[in-house]
Amino acid sequence: MMAGQIEKSGANIFLSNSIFVIIPAFNEGRVIGDTVAPLIESGYSVVVVDDCSRDNTWRVLEGLPITRIHHAVNLGQGAALQTGMEYAARHGAAAVVHFDADGQHDWKQIPDLVAPILEGRVDVTFGSRFLRRSDAAKVPPVKRLVLRVGRIVSSIFTGVFLSDTHNGFRALSPKALAAVALKENRFAHATEILAQVRRARLSYAEVATTIRYTDYSKAKGQPISSSFNTLIDLILRKIFP
Amino acid sequence: MSPIQPILVVLLILGTVVYFARLRSRLRDRMLVLLLVGAAVGMVMFPEWTTKVAHRLGVGRGVDLIIYLTILAAGFCLLVLLAKLRSLEAMVTSIVREVAILHAEQLRSQSQTPHPRERLPESTESDRARGPR
């Protein structure tokens, strides 16, 4: 889709620039340029939230027709997403897409992810790499096991059972944007968002998406040990809401 | 009176003075501190009291009872501090977020490069219907 093209969805007409793609970035200077290029080309409103990177992430994006937001201190991925969502809400987004900076999400799948929202069918869509056998096969075996355990833990904490809880590729409607306020600054936001979706009685659906595992994304991804840290965050949040 | 007793009493009183002078606090907290310090002074001056209470609770020595109570109090203080730390973290987050968004909007208005929203062709009816951004 070229810039300015109109995306038709049901009876409504939406400009693709009313879809805000939020990219939290921390030390992603090597890849962030390649990640945002096709999104800009597609006419989306790209919002990169630089979470106080120590590398050249901020400079790489200079001059591009995107919104750059800079956190003065490193707060974490959840906080960066929330900052992007607040910005999008203030600027009248028709839908917001969470997108990883390391290029592991496929920008061509954004229309699939936002279509149910733009058509008014659901408030939130969650990308899932386990709905299609071909996508699931790409997930490394150890990662698959960790995700499965994470899925069970998340469903215990939130009461929402998804096939792929820790997929960062998701989309929210303006209604969801108003209802969701992430307080988990770090990685526990993936579970927190489910709890808030349930509490606000938002409707949701899963959409099959592909994750592209590159050496870079694997190195940048959360180490398995961080899952325990996330679990501690969740428990602390239960004790101190 | 053994030599440790006046030392402990003086230290307790000094600690209380510092608390009252340096830490702004609510009346309720101050009363609680006075009560606790009063009890502590009592325990220092009359250690046989704690032994009596300890025996009633099935603990061998008064000092053991005090150690158990201290551990419990320390745990409670830790939880309170942790809760305060989290609320402080939430405050820092909201300040950093607000500054970041304001700065981004400032950058956008100063920048020569138009934002994707502005560089698009004229808006459609449905876009206009959604009102000003």
Q: Can you characterise this structure?
A:
The complex is a heterodimer of chains A (about 240) and B (about 130). In chain A, about 40% of the residues lie in helices and about 15% in strands. Chain A is built from 10 helices and 9 strands. Chain A has helices spanning about 30-40, 55-60, 75-90, 110-120, 135, 140-160, 175-180, 190-200, 215-220, 225-240; strands at about 5-10, 10-15, 20-25, 45-50, 65-70, 95-100, 125-130, 170, 205-210. Chain B is mostly helical and about 130 residues long. Chain B has 5 helices and no strands. Chains A and B meet through strand 2, strand 4, strand 5 and helix 3 of A and helix 4 and helix 5 of B.
Shape of chain A: globular
User: What string, H for helix and E for strand, traces the elements of chain B in order?
Assistant: HHHHH
- Uncertain parts of chain B: 115-133
Summed up, the helix count of chain A is 10
**Euclidean distance between termini CA atoms of chain B:** 78 Å
Report the structural category of chain B. mainly alpha
Which structural category do the helix and sheet elements of chain A fall into?
Answer: alpha/beta
Percent of residues in beta strands of chain B: under 5%
Q: Give the amount of beta strand of chain A, in percent.
A: 15-25%
Mean pLDDT of chain B: 83
* Straight-line N-to-C gap of chain A: 43 Å
